[in-house]
Amino acid sequence: MLPDNFKQVSKQTLVIQQFLMEHLPEPINLQVSVINVSAEEIVVATSSPQVANYLRLYVAEVQQQIQETFQLSQKLTIRTIPDSLLKIECSRDLGKPIKVSNQTAENISRGAGWIEDENLKQSLESLADTLKGKSNSKG
Length: 139
Fold this sequence. Notes:
Blueprint: H1 6-23, E1 33-37, E2 41-46, H2 49-57, H3 59-70, E3 75-80, H4 83-86, H5 102-112, H6 118-138
Parallel strand pairs: 2-3
Antiparallel strand pairs: 1-2
Helix pairs in contact: 5-6
């Protein structure tokens, strides 16, 4: 289940990303990603320590521009994270999902019985029930 403010955060993230693309100098603007917007902070990440240091040098100015442009009050935080984490993209063509046997659904259901966290237990049981329904309807 997604948080109640997921759409708002997603929209803010995209808008701030576009703002940075337009207002930061090249090639800095191509090396930054807005990775989170929360009530307390806006997190901008880069894989380059040099770019991160550049942004930290001007963080007050960039933060002020973002706050004034979007009427936000969050603190701007700069993070350096591996490039492999920044470049994760979903393929648009994921292909057809594989069929899951009734035995696999039963194993998930049986495994859920051992889980102490009630939310996780319910999620696994729901998944198993869904998979059982799909397996029965396909054959």
